[in-house]
Design goal:
There is one protein chain. This protein is an alpha+beta fold. The protein contains 2 helices and 3 strands. The chain has one domain. Helices cover 25% and strands 36% of the residues. It has a 3-stranded antiparallel sheet with strand order 1-2-3. A hairpin with a 5-residue loop joins strand 2 and strand 3. It is globular and about 25 Å long.
Length: 61
């Protein structure tokens, strides 16, 4: 399972996309592209949903 963390210009992100769990990396990438439609989001980090979260990749504009 994967999840997203959004890096924003200012403030915090409150999006259902960051709280969702994605079964495949392709689904997580699609969610990251949707998250990047918000102008305040600079980039998105895909992490493996475990404790502690393990970095997978950055998705940028």
């Amino acid at each position: 399972m994967y999840k997203l963390n959004g890096i924003m210009r200012q403030g915090t992100i409150d999006s259902s996309l960051t709280s969702a769990r994605y079964a495949t990396l392709e689904e997580a990438r699609a969610g990251a592209r949707e998250l990047l439609r918000d102008d305040r989001v600079l980039r998105a980090m895909i992490v493996w949903n475990e404790i502690p979260p393990r970095f997978v990749e950055w998705v940028e504009r």
